[in-house]
Amino acid sequence: MSAKRGTWPGSVSAPLGSPIQPSVVYKSAGPNTLDDIYEGREAGFTYAREGHPNAAVVAGRIAEMEGAAAGLMTGSGMAAVGAVLMGLLRAGDHVVAGDQLYGRSLRLMADDLPRFGVGVTLANACDAAAVAAAMTPATRLILIETVSNPTIRIADLDGIAALARDAGALLVVDNTFTTPRAVQPLARGADIVVHSVTKLLAGHSDATLGWVGTKTPDLMAEIERFAVTMGLTASPFDCWLAERGLMTFDLRYDRAEANAAGLAAALSGLEGVKQVLYPTDPAHPDRALAAALLGNRGSHMVSFVIDGGRPEAERLVNAVAGDIAFAPTLGDIATTLSHPASSSHRALSTDAQAAIGISEGFFRVSVGCEPLDHIAEVLTRGVAAAYSPVSD
Ligand SMILES: *Cc1c(COP(=O)(O)O)cnc(C)c1O
Prior knowledge:
Elements (H helix, E strand, L loop, with lengths): L30 H8 L14 H14 L3 E5 L2 H12 L5 E5 L4 H10 L6 E5 L4 H7 L4 E7 L11 H11 L2 E5 L4 H4 L9 E5 L13 E5 L2 H14 L5 H12 L1 H20 L4 E5 L9 H8 L6 E6 L3 H11 L4 E2 L9 E3 L11 H6 L6 E5 L5 H15 L6
Parallel strand pairs: 2-3, 2-4, 4-5, 5-6, 10-11
Antiparallel strand pairs: 1-7, 6-7, 8-9, 9-12, 11-12
Bound molecules: pyridoxal-5'-phosphate.
């Protein structure tokens, strides 16, 4: 065998699509060049865990969308959340976090930060006064999500940003649900934004990725140092897929959002549907906050509650199965349906579920880009089937 690599052909033309660069390591002219790269005098890469062109391309694109000074790709949305918390906090610090965060973020709060001596208090992010009451002199960071999963409650981002500013605490916003197309948290006082790029931004359920963006380059330096040390950074192939997904993000988002608004209206009139949760619905419990934060945008998530228990829920899911996948994720190009009581929120007791409005009849729809008529017809059929036991 020969360990000699082939010679990459020269070309006077350039590829239109971005190439994938999977190389783990980069060769350079010598120690002086390495100094130039590490000290930022020359552009260059050294080792893939520390950065590579595919990550730089996507991180830069999302940074433009969010208006961030700097952006970093991570191997998942949770790697982004973890890099921010573990990169910036130290023992003795205190964190205030929304009480309806993504399940794994809540686990980080409940199980992991305390192991490292970081105190955590959860608070209702729809209510800035509740967040204020949870803060202590040691509060160094506040983590909220713009729209809660799966209950579609809206954070008082402006109120909480004012509190964070007054207290000198960092405000971190997980903007996965609303995306920069609906709200740009950095422009409203957040210091750091995180995304699960896995969801709407990449959009095709084939790449697991996250992103962190900061208002200032200094904050990013601390987060990036920890992410690189821990290997929380992203793979070239996933980044390459995400760049391709991002090219159609605006189109997908607008289409899914229009579909979601239409679906919310269609579900509202159905017999057996007790409640529909969608931010632009006049009956939404946080309608005023939604208008202030999102304007007339509602994003692509609709939750609804039907009368009944597990048998009704099971029949609804079975009736739509050929057309809408029952899958506990969101942001795919196609519509997916999830049932929090048996998936994301199954660890909570029935009482704890009820306290945030989740029951066996609670469904969350991640609305996709199919024709609205089709989505509405399938779910209308599903709701009807919930109340029609089939005999076999
Ligand atoms: C999915 C999700 C995450 C975690 O992202 P992964 O890419 O699955 O690690 C974090 N926050 C929110 C709001 C999410 O929906």
